[in-house]
Write a structure and sequence with these properties.
The structure holds three protein chains of three kinds.
Chain A lengths: L1 H12 L4 H8 L1 H10 L5 H16 L8 H9 L3 H14 L7 H11 L5 H14 L2 H17 L3 H17 L4 H14 L5 H17 L8 H9 L2 H12 L8 E2 L2 E2 L1 H17 L1 H4 L3 H14 L5 H16 L4 H15 L4 H14 L4 H5 L2 H7 L5 H14 L5 H14 L5 H17 L5 H15 L5 H13 L3 H16 L11 H18 L7 H14 L4 H14 L6 H12 L7 H14 L3 H7 L38 H9 L13 H4 L5 H11 L16 E5 L3 E8 L6 E10 L6 E6 L5 E4 L12 E9 L4 E9 L2 E9 L4
Helix pairs in contact in A: 3-4, 4-6, 5-6, 6-8, 7-9, 8-10, 9-10, 10-12, 11-12, 11-13, 12-15, 14-15, 14-17, 15-18, 17-18, 17-19, 18-19, 18-20, 19-20, 20-23, 22-23, 23-25, 24-26, 25-26, 26-27, 26-28, 27-29, 28-29, 29-30, 29-31, 30-31, 30-32, 31-32, 31-33, 33-37
Chain B lengths: L3 E8 L4 E6 L5 H16 L8 E4 L2 E8 L2 E7 L6 H19 L4 H6 L1 H11 E2 L3 E2 L4 H24 L1
Antiparallel strand pairs in B: 1-2, 1-5, 3-4, 4-5, 6-7
Chain C lengths: L3 E8 L4 H12 L9 E8 L4 E11 L2 H9 L4 H6 E8 L4 H15 L7 E6 L7 H9 L6 E5 L12 H11 L3 H6 L14 H17 L3 H18 L2
Parallel strand pairs in C: 1-3, 1-4, 4-5, 5-6
Antiparallel strand pairs in C: 2-3
Classes of the chains: A alpha+beta, B alpha+beta, C alpha/beta.
C-alpha cells in the first residue's frame, strides 16, 4: 500500500481534475447555453459549432444546433459558410421543416460568384433535397448547366440533377437534354463529367416509371442514341486509352467503367427494345471487357465482376452467359477472399439457369468449401448442391463428407444445411444405388450426429428401413450397433444423440438380424437400451425410441431375466411427468403382457415406408431427366414412424381385448380427451409437419420485417405455359397470411392453394401458380400479413 | 453504380471517428447501425473477407492502421469490390493531404476529412470524382480562402 | 491546472533494465527505483502538448495489489487518474487480464473517459490474431492488451510500444475537447510566408491599440493570437 498512499497524498496536494472532467461531460450543455446568446461573435459561433460536430461524432445530442447551421450559412464569410454547410449536411435531413429556411440561402449561394460557395451549396442540395427543394431550386442547377464552363460545377450540377429527378420525376424532362449536350460537348478527358452524365442518365431511366407525361418515348429515344458512344467510351477506357491520370493499379478508372456498365445495364432492364439495334455492339464490348481485363488487382476484378453482372442481365444469350460464368470461374480461383465471395454469390444467381457451365468450375468451388471464412464456405456448399448431377454426384458428395468430418461447432448451420440437402438429393435420385446412399447417411450421423435434428434422423431410419438389399442392411445395422456398443474406441461422442437414436432403433427393429453375430449378445443389446434410458431420461425423444425398442427387443430374445429388465425400463416410465411418455409406457406395458403370438403379430417389422417428396424439391438442378415428377406417390401421411406404427396396431387384431383402447387409434371422435392425448403422442413438435424446404436455387424476390419471399421458375416445356413457385418464409410468427397475385394483362394465371395461412417464425409457406401466355414473367404480389398489407412487383429473368 | 448508404470510421477501440449518412435513416436506426455494424466488423477475424450481410444491406469494410473504414451499401446495385476501391481511394487521398494520415489527424481535423469525402461522394452516396489530385486541389483551395478570410477579418 | 495523472504498474519481478526500457521508450523518461512519481512528463503530438505525472508502482501478487487499489481510501486517486498501464510477465495471461477487467468494472465509478492498457512483457507471446480476438472482448472496458515484443507486420498496424503511444495519443484528454481546432486550422500553410505574417502582426498591433473597451480588446487579442499561431504551425 506504500506507493498508493504516496499517490493519494500527492493527489490531495494538487488541484483535482474532477472539476475539469465535469466541464467536459457538460460540454454540449455549455455550448447550448452559449449559442443562445445573440451577441456572440460569428467567430465564436463557428467554434462552438465545430466543437459540437466533434461531439456529434462522439454520439452526443446536438440537434439544438440545427438553426445555428443556417445562421452560419447565411454569413457572407467563406469559413462560416464552409462549416455551416458541413453542419447542415451532418445535422439536418430532408424531412426537416427547417429546410424551408434553407431554400433562399441555397438559391443565393447557387448563384454566388465564388465557385467554391456554389460547390458547397450543391453538396448540401445533393444531400438534403426534398421534393419541395427540388422544385424550388432546379432552375439554379439548370442555370449552371447552361452557362458554366467550370468542370467542378458541371459535374456536381449533373449529380444534383440526378438527385432532383429522384425527388421529383417530372424534372427529368428538364434535365434529359443535358445528358446528350454535355456528353458530346465537353472534353472526354474529364471523367468527373462523364460520371456525372451517367448519374443523370441512370436517374432518368430508374425514375421513368414515375414520369407521367407522354413525351417519355422521345426523351428515351434521345438518350438511347447515346448508347453507342457509351459503349465506345467503355471499350476505350477499358483498353487503357483514356487519360492515364485515372489509372488505379493497372486498371484505368474502374469507377467510370462500372458507372458506364450500370447505365448500359439500366437500359437493358428498363427499355430492352431500345437496346435491340445495338445488340451486337453490346455483345462485342462486353466480350471485350470480360476477355481483356486482367485479374491482377482488386480494381481490375471489380470491373470484371461488373461486366459479368451486366452480361447476366442480358436475356437469353447463352454463349455470352457461358463467357460470364467462365470469368467467374477464374475469379473463384483467385486468392483474394473478397473476389471469391462475390463470384460465388454471382454464380449462385445463375446456377439454376446454367448448371452445366457452372459445374465445369467445380474444382475451385470445392476448394472454397474449406475456406477459413465461413461465409465463403456457406456459399461454396450451396453452389455445390446447385451443380450436383448424376455424373458428379459421388465426387462432390465425397467432398462434402470431408467437410463434415472436419466441421466444428460453429459450422452447425452449415452442417444442418448439408444434411437437409443430402437427404433431399437422395430422395430424388432414385437411380443411385441405395447401399451407397445409406453409407453416406451413416457417415454423416457418425461424424456430426450431435448437430442433426431428430427429423433428419427419421429420414435416416426410413432409409435403413427401406433398403431392399438384405445383406447390406444387415451389414449397416451391425456396424451401427457395433460402434455404439464399443466402449474403448469412442468413435462417437456421447452427445451424438442422432447416433444414439439410430442405434436404439436398430436394436429394436433388427436385433434378430444381428444376434447371430458373435459380436452381439442378448445381454449387450439389453444393457445398451438400459444405459441409453438412464443416460437420457430427460430427453423424451430418446426415451420414446428406447421404449419402442425395449418392447420390440423383448419379442426377439429368450433370456427371461433380460426380458424382465426390458419390462422394467417400460414400467419405470408409467409415472413419467411427460404425458406423452407416460401414455406410451402404459400402452406398451399392456402390449408387453400379451401372449407372445399376439405380441409378435402386433410388432411386425415395419413395411417399406414411402416418403412424400415435397413437390417443389424436384429441383431441376439435379438434372431434369432424373427428377421425380412432383407428387408422384403420396400414399400416407409421411414422415412419422411412430404414427405409422401405431396406425398399424389396430389392423391385425380388431378384436384385441378391449384393454387396448382402439378408439384411441381408430375413432378419434369417440373420446375427446383421449383424442387429445393421442394428438400429443403423435404430434411431438419435432415430428409434426413436414416442413417445406426452399430449394437452394430460389431467388429472393422480396423481403420485409415479417417475411422473406423466394421464387423460382420451374422447368416447363413450352414458353406458353410456365410454372412459378413462391416460398414465403416467416421472420416472425404470422397468424394470418393471405396472398393475392396479379400477372400482366397479356397472360393468364392459375393458382394453387397457399400451403399454410399461419406460420411460426422460420417456417415456410408455398404458393404455386401456372402462367399461360407469352412474355416475361412479371408478378404483382399483395400480401396480407396479420392484417397488414404489403405489396411488391417482381420480374423473373427469362430462362431458356 | 455506387449508392453508399453510410460511411463510418471506427477505431480499433470501438470509438467512432467519422460518420456520414447518405440515406435518411431515423435516429433509432442510426444508433442501431452504429452499435451493431461496428461490433460486427470489429469481431471479424483477419482471414475473413471484407464483405458481410447486415439487415437488408451489405457492409464492406477495410482496416487501415488503427481505423476501420466501413461502408453500408445496397444489396443489388453496389459493386462490393468497387466499394473497397472507393474506400481505398478515400484513404489514399487523406494520406496525401495529411501526409501519412493517422487516427489523430482525423480526430483533430475531422472537418477536413469530411471535406475530402464530400468532394468524392455526393447525393445518395454516388462517387463524383475519382482523382486524388483533383480532390486535394479543391480542398486546399478552400483552405486557402479560409485562412486569408480569417486573417482579413481579424485585421479589418 | 495541475498535471494529469497516469498510473504505471510493474511486476516486482520485472528486471530493472526492462523498466528503464519501458519508460524511456514510451515516455522518454528516466527510471529511478526510489522515486515513485515521475513528474511533468511532456506528451507532444502534432495537435496538442500536455503534461502528466506518472505514478509508478510495483506488485508482488497482482490480486493483492488489486484489493488495495479497490479500497475506499484510494477513491480519490482513482477519480483523478486519466489512465492506467499494467505491465505483466505471466505466461498464463488469462487470470491477470480477468483481474484487470475486475478492477475496471468494479472499482471505478466511471471508467469511460480513462484509458487502460495491459502490456504483456513476455517473449513467448500470443500471436497477433489471438491478441486481436482477445481485445475484442475488452473494448467495453476501454482496455487493450498490447504485446511489448510484437514486431510490426505487413499490416499498417502499430504494435508494441508504438501502439501504447498511439493509445495515449488518441485519448480524449479533457483539455482537447475544448481546444479541438476549428476548421481554419489547415495543414498546409505554405501560402503564408514570414513576410506577410509580420506585416499582419504589425497591423494587428495597431488595431489593438485603437480599441478602448477592455473586454473587446481582450477578445480581439485572444482571437488574434489563435489565428496567428495557426499560421505558424
Amino acid at each position: 500500500m506504500g506507493s498508493l498512499r504516496n499517490f493519494i497524498k500527492d493527489v490531495r496536494a494538487s488541484r483535482t481534475l474532477a472539476e475539469e472532467r465535469a466541464i467536459v461531460t457538460k460540454e454540449s450543455a455549455r455550448i447550448r447555453t452559449r449559442l443562445k446568446d445573440d451577441h456572440i461573435s460569428s467567430e465564436r459561433r463557428k467554434k462552438y459549432i465545430q466543437k459540437l460536430l466533434y461531439l456529434y461524432i462522439l454520439g452526443e445530442k446536438t440537434h439544438f444546433a440545427q438553426v445555428e447551421c443556417i445562421n452560419l450559412i447565411a454569413s457572407e464569410e467563406f469559413p462560416d459558410k464552409r462549416i455551416g454547410y458541413l453542419a447542415a449536411i451532418l445535422l439536418l435531413d430532408e424531412n426537416q421543416e427547417l429546410l424551408t429556411l434553407l431554400t433562399n440561402l441555397l438559391n443565393n449561394d447557387l448563384n454566388h460568384p465564388s465557385r467554391y460557395v456554389v460547390s458547397l451549396a450543391m453538396n448540401a442540395l445533393g444531400a438534403l433535397t426534398s421534393p419541395e427543394l427540388a422544385r424550388d431550386l432546379y432552375v439554379d442547377i439548370k442555370n449552371i448547366l447552361d452557362h458554366s464552363q467550370d468542370t467542378l460545377l458541371i459535374k456536381k450540377a449533373l449529380a444534383c440533377a440526378a438527385k432532383l429527378i429522384s425527388r421529383d420525376p417530372s424534372l427529368l424532362e428538364i434535365f434529359a437534354p443535358y445528358a446528350s449536350k454535355i456528353l458530346f460537348d465537353k472534353e472526354m478527358d474529364n471523367h468527373g463529367i462523364i460520371i456525372g452524365t451517367n448519374k443523370l442518365i441512370q436517374s432518368i431511366l430508374i425514375h421513368s416509371k414515375s414520369y407521367e407525361f407522354d413525351n417519355l418515348p422521345e426523351i428515351i429515344d434521345k438518350l438511347s442514341a447515346l448508347i453507342p458512344d457509351m459503349l465506345a467510351t467503355l471499350q476505350h477506357v477499358n483498353s487503357g486509352l483514356s487519360n492515364l491520370r485515372y489509372n488505379v493499379e493497372g486498371c484505368l478508372d474502374p469507377f467510370l467503367q462500372v458507372e458506364l456498365m450500370t447505365t448500359l445495364r439500366l437500359f437493358l432492364q428498363h427499355f430492352p427494345e431500345k437496346t435491340e439495334p445495338y445488340k451486337n455492339n453490346y455483345l462485342d464490348t462486353l466480350t471485350h471487357v470480360a476477355t481483356y481485363t486482367p485479374t491482377s488487382s482488386n480494381s481490375c476484378t471489380s470491373v470484371l465482376y461488373e461486366a459479368v453482372r451486366t452480361i447476366f442481365s442480358f436475356q437469353a444469350e447463352h454463349s455470352l452467359r457461358v463467357l460470364g460464368i467462365n470469368v467467374l470461374g477464374t475469379l473463384v480461383a483467385q486468392k483474394d477472399c473478397n473476389t471469391k465471395y462475390v463470384s460465388l454469390n454471382a454464380l449462385l444467381d445463375v446456377v439454376s439457369i446454367e448448371p452445366q457451365a457452372v459445374q465445369r468450375h467445380r474444382k475451385f468451388i470445392s476448394r472454397c468449401i474449406f475456406d477459413p471464412d465461413v461465409s465463403i464456405r456457406k456459399r461454396a456448399l450451396e453452389l455445390t448442391f446447385g451443380i450436383l448431377n448424376p455424373t458428379n454426384l459421388k465426387e462432390l458428395i465425397s467432398e462434402i463428407l470431408v467437410f463434415l468430418e472436419k466441421a466444428e461447432e460453429n459450422d452447425r448451420g452449415l452442417i444442418l444445411y448439408c444434411a437437409d440437402q443430402l437427404i433431399m438429393v437422395f430422395d430424388m435420385q432414385e437411380n443411385i444405388d441405395d447401399s451407397w446412399k445409406l453409407d453416406v447417411i451413416v457417415k454423416i450421423l457418425k461424424s456430426v450426429g450431435q448437430y442433426i435434428s431428430v427429423e433428419k434422423v427419421t429420414d435416416a431410419l426410413i432409409m435403413i428401413n427401406n433398403t431392399s438389399n438384405l445383406d447390406h442392411k444387415k451389414q449397416v445395422v451391425s456396424d451401427i450397433v457395433n460402434v455404439a456398443l464399443e466402449k474403448t474406441t469412442s468413435q462417437v461422442l456421447d452427445e451424438n444423440l442422432a447416433w444414439r437414436i439410430v442405434s436404439v432403433w436398430c436394436i429394436g427393429e433388427y436385433a434378430d438380424l444381428i444376434l447371430g453375430d458373435s459380436k452381439f449378445s442378448e445381454t449387450s443389446l439389453t444393457d445398451y437400451l438400459y444405459k441409453s434410458d438412464s443416460l437420457h431420461r430427460d430427453n423424451s425423444v430418446v426415451v420414446s425410441y428406447v421404449l419402442m425398442a425395449a418392447l420390440k427387443l423383448s419379442t426377439k430374445i429368450d433370456t427371461k431375466t433380460l426380458i424382465k429388465k426390458l419390462r422394467e425400463i417400460i414400467k419405470s416410465h408409467t409415472e413419467n411427468t411427460n404425458v406423452m411418455i407416460q401414455t406410451k409406457a402404459v400402452q406398451y406395458g399392456i402390449i408387453f403382457n400379451e401372449p407372445p403370438a399376439v405380441k409378435t403379430a402386433l410388432l411386425e417389422p415395419m413395411p417399406i415406408f414411402e416418403k412424400k417428396i415435397p413437390e417443389t424439391s424436384a429441383a431441376k438442378t439435379i438434372s431434369q431427366k432424373y427428377s421425380a415428377p412432383a407428387a408422384k406417390k403420396v400414399k400416407k401421411k409421411e414422415n412419422d414412424l411412430l404414427l405409422d406404427l401405431l396406425g398399424d396396431l389396430s389392423l391385425p387384431e380388431p378384436t384385441t381385448p378391449s384393454k387396448i383402447p382402439d378408439d384411441l387409434l381408430a375413432n378419434p371422435k369417440s373420446s375427446a380427451t383421449l383424442q387429445q392425448q393421442n394428438q400429443n403422442i403423435l404430434n411431438t413438435p419435432t415430428f409434426t409437419r413436414n416442413p417445406i424446404e426452399i430449394p437452394p436455387n430460389s431467388i429472393s424476390v422480396h423481403s420485409s420485417d415479417t417475411v422473406e419471399v423466394f421464387g423460382r421458375v420451374e422447368l416447363t416445356n413450352s414458353d406458353q405455359n410456365r410454372e412459378i413457385t413462391l416460398f414465403l418464409k416467416a421472420k416472425k410468427d404470422i397468424k394470418t397470411l393471405q396472398i393475392l397475385i396479379a400477372v400482366p394483362k397479356s397472360q393468364r394465371a392459375e393458382f394453387g392453394p397457399l400451403s399454410s395461412h399461419m406460420l411460426s417464425s422460420g417456417e415456410v409457406a408455398r404458393q404455386s401458380l401456372k402462367i399461360y401466355g407469352p412474355g416475361s414473367i412479371k408478378l404483382r404480389v399483395k400480401l396480407n400479413i396479420n392484417s397488414i398489407a404489403d405489396q411488391f412487383d417482381y420480374k423473373f429473368e427469362n430462362r431458356t | 453504380m455506387s449508392q453508399i448508404k453510410y460511411m463510418l470510421l471506427t477505431s480499433r477501440q470501438g470509438k467512432t471517428r467519422l460518420i456520414r449518412w447518405y440515406e435518411p435513416f431515423d435516429a433509432k436506426q442510426k444508433s442501431k447501425i452504429l452499435r451493431e455494424v461496428a461490433a460486427n466488423v470489429l469481431s471479424r477475424k483477419s482471414k475473413m473477407c471484407n464483405i458481410l450481410e447486415y439487415q437488408d444491406h451489405k457492409v464492406v469494410y477495410k482496416k487501415y492502421a488503427s481505423l476501420y473504414f466501413i461502408a453500408g451499401i445496397d444489396l443489388e446495385v453496389d459493386n462490393e469490390l468497387l466499394t473497397l476501391e472507393i474506400i481505398h481511394r478515400f484513404v489514399e487521398t487523406m494520406d496525401r493531404y495529411f501526409g501519412n494520415v493517422c487516427e489523430l489527424d482525423i480526430i483533430f481535423n475531422f472537418s477536413k476529412a469530411y471535406s475530402i469525402l464530400d468532394e468524392m461522394i455526393m447525393c445518395d452516396g454516388s462517387i463524383i470524382e475519382t482523382r486524388k489530385d483533383e480532390v486535394i486541389r479543391i480542398v486546399e483551395a478552400m483552405d486557402a480562402i479560409e485562412s486569408n478570410d480569417d486573417l482579413d477579418r481579424v485585421l479589418s | 491546472m495541475d498535471n494529469y495523472k497516469v498510473l504505471l504498474l510493474f511486476p516486482e519481478s520485472l528486471k530493472i533494465h526492462n523498466r528503464v526500457a519501458f519508460l524511456s521508450t514510451v515516455f522518454q523518461e528516466q527510471y529511478d527505483e526510489k522515486e515513485s512519481i515521475v513528474r511533468d512528463v511532456r506528451w507532444r503530438t502534432k495537435y496538442y502538448d500536455i503534461k502528466f505525472d506518472i505514478y509508478v508502482d510495483t506488485y508482488d501478487a497482482f490480486e493483492e495489489w488489486a484489493v488495495n487499489f479497490a479500497a475506499d481510501e484510494c477513491k480519490e486517486l482513482r477519480d483523478v487518474l486519466s489512465g492506467m498501464i499494467f505491465v505483466f510477465e505471466d505466461k498464463n495471461h488469462e487470470p491477470v487480464i480477468d483481474c484487470i477487467k475486475g478492477i475496471i468494472d468494479e472499482t471505478f465509478e466511471d471508467f469511460t473517459n480513462k484509458f487502460f492498457i495491459g502490456c504483456l512483457f513476455n517473449e513467448s507471446t500470443i500471436i497477433e490474431d489471438d491478441l486481436y480476438e482477445l481485445n475484442n472482448d475488452l473494448i467495453i472496458q476501454n482496455l487493450e492488451i498490447v504485446n511489448w515484443f510484437d514486431k510490426a507486420g505487413p499490416s499498417m498496424d502499430r504494435v508494441g510500444s508504438e501502439r501504447i503511444k498511439e493509445i495515449i495519443d488518441v485519448h480524449p484528454w479533457p483539455c482537447n475537447a475544448q481546444t479541438i481546432k476549428s476548421s481554419q486550422e489547415h495543414v498546409d500553410s505554405k501560402s503564408n510566408d514570414l513576410g506577410s505574417f509580420i506585416a499582419k502582426l504589425e497591423k494587428a498591433k495597431q488595431k489593438y491599440q485603437t480599441i478602448n473597451n477592455n473586454t473587446e480588446a481582450e477578445e480581439f487579442l485572444e482571437s488574434m493570437i489563435e489565428e496567428l499561431s495557426d499560421m505558424i504551425v
